[in-house]
Known about the structure:
This protein has 840 residues and is α+β, with helices and mostly antiparallel strands. It is 60% helix and 7% strand. This is V-type proton ATPase subunit a. Essential component of the vacuolar proton pump (V-ATPase), a multimeric enzyme that catalyzes the translocation of protons across the membranes. Required for assembly and activity of the V-ATPase. Belongs to the V-ATPase 116 kDa subunit family.
Amino acid sequence: MTTMGSLFRSEEMALCQLFLQSESAYTCVSELGELGLVQFRDLNPDVNAFQRKFVNEVRRCDEMERKLRYLEREIRKDGIPVLDTGENPEAPMPREMIDLEVKFEKLENELKEVNSNAEALKRNYLELTELKHILKKTQVFFDEAMYPPNLPYDQDVYFDDDEQVNLLTDTSLHQLKHIGFVAGVILRERIPAFERMLWRACRGNVFLRQAEISEPLEDPATGEQVYKSVFIIFFQGDHLKMRVKKICEGFRATMYPCPEAPADRREMAMGVKTRLDDLNTVLSQTQDHRHRVLVSAARDIRAWMMKVWKIKSIYHTLNMFNLDVIQNGLIAECWIPVANLEDVQLALRRGTEKSGSLPAILNRLSTQESPPTFHRTNKFTKAFQTLIDSYGVANYREINPAPYTIITFPFLFAIMFGDFGHGIIMALFGAWMVWREKPLSAKKTDNEIWNIFFGGRYIILLMGVFSMYTGLIYNDVFSKAFNIFGSSWHPAFNNSVLMSKELTLDPGNKEQYDQYPYPFGLDPMWQIANNKINFYNSYKMKISIIFGVIHMLFGVILSVWNHRFFNRPMSIYCEFIPQLLFLCCLFLYLILLVFHKWTWYGAGGDPSVSPNCAPSILITFINMVLVKPYEEPGPVCSYYMFAGQFGLQRFLLIVALLCVPWMLCAKPFLLHRMHKQRTIMMQANGGEGVVEEGGGDAAAAAAVATAEEHDMGEVMIHQGIHTIEYVLGSVSHTASYLRLWALSLAHAQLSEVLWQMVLRIGLTTSGLAGGFLTYAIFAVWAFLTVAILVLMEGLSAFLHTLRLHWVEFQSKFYGGTGYAFVPFAFETILDQAENAGPEQ
């Protein structure tokens, strides 16, 4: 009963004061976090976050979280899986924080030391590898007897001592005296700019040879694979040597010593190879040790994270408490559902038993403050409650539209989306998400679109099921009809009909129509009729108005439950009754005319009740509002649907018009009279207040009386705004429900166009080519059906249904100006922290 009551109306809340001993405050808050049914109020709103009592503990938690984030990044960098065992450890005791800090500090230092050593080894390994490639590539350069015949530089080299040597002569390289060289490694993409700079800075007086290193090298700082090239630069003179080295440093090229003698180079190459083998062994051992440390941490890091998050949230909550210096305790204020007061008491008892201190004291306070709104939901009702809360959280104890939306939302959606085939697709998708609910919810993802679909899986399932039902009513399956029970139409297919491919159904033709309707839904013959659009237009437009008026009437009727619950009899007499009368006298009468026309007029009977004599309901309603009498069209037909219609319509119009001043003036007048009576009674009592009965209306009058001046004009303006909004809204909202008709026709026509212009091409092609063409065209048709008719049209119908509920339905009774109950719950805190984790 508690769950059902809280679904139809929010839970009754109690403001409580909590006295905790300092020794038991941590454990008690921890137990309340596990329970998740207490919303604490901040009793220190003016105190800076850095000046609160437990700020040091929060900082320690932040530091532990930083270390764990560092460990987590290293674990993910190595591709080690972090297993989610589903374990939910309890919040550790405060004394255990020191052990956790020591453990995390040790792990962080060990990992940083290993990473530092590994980076140094990798840097050394990179240098030796580059040196190995330099020795290998430069050996080829030195083994050449001379430069290739076509060198890139064809200018003479000038030296400081005015000695001129031409590098482009046929003299062998080893015959040139006083020539120096620099060898090194540079990033491959910098080679062109490096060559140009050498040419310009040295004026072509250097000779550059370079060769690419085929395999990529690992950058020890970033771990990325980079491609480099070996270069050797020949020059003559110390001046050019200094200039070349500065250019190399500017391009961040790494220079290595390279012996001139071949024997020295071979000896160095052998030494480099030996050192590389040794470094490989040490690097392998270092990586193994690092991997073992990370694997060990990966087994417990999620439990450690949850512990730290719980500790941090507990101290954040304790910072909202007041300090009781005299009693050496903490004082808190919190909102608790009345139905769970005993559960909170048990949780506090468990907390005090863990700490071994005096029991906590929970006192219920009286307050004029509006409590938070709390609706208990399950996995089925949560999505519908979210739709309502997206418009605005209900006022405290206000009637909740969510349980009614469970039926009305998918039904109004289905009126616009009525197609049995498209409904099956949507229902199967929703059923799959419901069936795979547990494994899909376990796979946490950041994809917002998928999270929205999965969160509304039950809404999608119901929308699909209801669309299947309305599709059967419309007898529409991918723009085609099912002839299950046998059609009541038997038209004659003569040559003219077959040649023109146009068939007009006439209900008055007894040779065509058997004069009894199809047992369920619409007759399949209408799908191929030439006058199908005219028939569907009339039918769908009328049912849109019928369901719209019923929906609005239901919303007005729900408002009386709010008035009765909050003890507002004045609102019942001055708002609910005139609103109901206004809607019934105009729009309920309109839909009664629709039913009367459907049942009274028909083909094949008396000429006076034939379709040709049936008056237009739209013209009838306009004449009713204009109080315009009808002119008799002839001796057979009548503009009146029944005897006394004109007098009844005039009476209903007068009642509807009287409801306008009733809504506008009655409540302000009664409030003004109550104010005057209260003023007289206060004067008779010598200015002292009086205790009045009357609930909400008395409170409203009291609020008016406490003002310095009784501003009757302000009350009239407020009431006038609501009256105008309701009167004009009744007309516009009724017209707004015509979107059910418009979207239903648009959906049906799009489906028919897709069939005629896509799938029909493949089905009408004969021969072997037709089979292959049908196969390909069916894929195109299926893709367009899902993408356009199910997804896009479904989203459009969903948004229109949402608007009909938010504006047309909920405006009749729903305030939506409350604030949600946000309890201190570890489950919510952990979910938010885990979702925020990947983003950091």
